[in-house]
């Protein structure tokens, strides 16, 4: 009996990117359950994906320095993989990949091979023009000849315990929408006035509003400012959930409103429509994959103003600069996108 095909995946971060990678892993597991998958992943990201069926995780703590790299090396000692997906181009990830022994080391195409990425690979995925990050990740599955699916699937590991916790928090609300107001950088966040207006708009339509977010200072600060407007937030869960508990809350929501941040992509994995709020990056590349038509964006105008060219004539992934770009995103623009998303829900 021949040995199972051994695949190692290296994608450490961030939350949105590992959500995109889950779609690729789900595709591989669906068509090739015989492939044994080992995923080297970041410590925080593992909190969301631990328990994912058919996947062995090796956790890397980027704050651990040389010791963390050595721990990965020891965990994989004596193993040689048939293929490795080097799915991150940051130098730290490239260097970490060097401790893994693999016959095929598959990396990104030349255009995306930054920080010496090509030195750590011996094969490259196909270059695709204007590819969303998720589509780019699918190029790795293509290299193994995995059949393509008509519809995406995500094997997100949600325990009954997490679902029950979420229901205990939200079942008295009836139908609700989630606002996850904070990204990792303050410049990506929309205005407090804007979030309040969006909440009031949804309340008029009969929805209760739930705030979600992590325990970081940006999340807490903006949620506190939103809470200063009375009678709009029915439940504030910012800093009060695990990632899996947050995913369960997002799964039962009618709608999620979020800037360029992880919960937008978490919501996508569980089929919840997302109104994404964008200014600095091209939502066609990094926006919520299944809700592109519901994204409210000023990116096109901002990048043309800064570069003198429309985005189609610039390098894919070019970012607009500036701390106040999100202030150009008009409330009325976002409200129209909310109506569009809810209209899609009503016709299902």
UniProtKB/TrEMBL annotation:
Gene3D superfamilies cross-referenced by the UniProt entry: Glycogen Phosphorylase B
UniProt protein name: Putative ADP-heptose:LPS heptosyltransferase
Keywords (A to Z) from UniProt: Glycosyltransferase, Transferase
Molecular function terms, GO-annotated: ADP-heptose-lipopolysaccharide heptosyltransferase activity
InterPro entries (alphabetical): Glyco_trans_9, LPS_LOS_Heptosyltrfase
UniProt feature coiled coil, ranges: none
Xref: PANTHER family: LIPOPOLYSACCHARIDE CORE HEPTOSYLTRANSFERASE OPSX, TETRAACYLDISACCHARIDE 4'-KINASE-RELATED
GO biological process: lipopolysaccharide core region biosynthetic process
Annotated GO CC locations: cytosol
């Amino acid at each position: 009996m021949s040995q199972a095909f051994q695949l190692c995946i290296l994608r450490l971060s961030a939350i949105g990117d590992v959500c995109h990678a889950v779609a690729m892993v789900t595709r591989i597991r669906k068509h090739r359950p015989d492939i044994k998958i080992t995923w080297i992943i970041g410590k925080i990201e593992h909190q969301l994906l631990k328990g994912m069926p058919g996947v062995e995780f090796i956790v890397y703590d980027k704050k651990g320095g040389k010791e963390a790299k050595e721990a990965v090396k020891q965990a994989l000692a004596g193993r040689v993989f048939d293929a490795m997906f080097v799915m991150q181009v940051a130098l730290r990830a490239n260097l970490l990949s060097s401790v893994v022994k693999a016959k095929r080391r598959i990396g990104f195409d030349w255009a995306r091979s930054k920080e010496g990425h090509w030195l750590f690979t011996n094969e490259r995925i196909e270059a695709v023009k204007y590819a969303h990050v998720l589509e780019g990740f699918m190029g790795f599955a293509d290299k193994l000849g995995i059949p393509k699916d008509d519809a995406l699937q995500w094997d997100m590991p949600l325990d009954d315990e997490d679902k029950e916790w979420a229901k205990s928090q939200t079942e008295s609300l009836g139908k609700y929408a989630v606002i996850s107001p904070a990204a990792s950088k303050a410049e990506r966040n929309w205005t407090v006035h804007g979030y309040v207006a969006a909440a009031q708009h949804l309340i008029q339509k009969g929805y209760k509003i739930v705030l979600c977010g992590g325990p970081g200072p940006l999340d807490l600060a903006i949620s506190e400012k939103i809470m200063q407007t009375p009678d709009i937030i029915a439940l504030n869960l910012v800093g009060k959930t695990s990632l899996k508990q947050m995913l369960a809350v997002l799964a039962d929501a009618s709608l999620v409103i979020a800037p360029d941040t992880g919960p937008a992509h978490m919501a996508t994995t569980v089929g919840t429509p997302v109104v994404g709020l964008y200014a600095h990056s091209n939502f066609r590349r990094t926006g919520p994959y299944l809700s592109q038509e519901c994204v409210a964006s000023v990116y096109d105008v901002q990048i043309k103003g800064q570069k003198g060219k429309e985005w189609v004539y610039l390098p894919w992934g070019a970012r607009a600069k500036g701390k106040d770009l999100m202030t150009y995103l008009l409330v009325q623009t976002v409200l129209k996108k909310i109506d569009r998303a809810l209209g899609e829900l009503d016709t299902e």
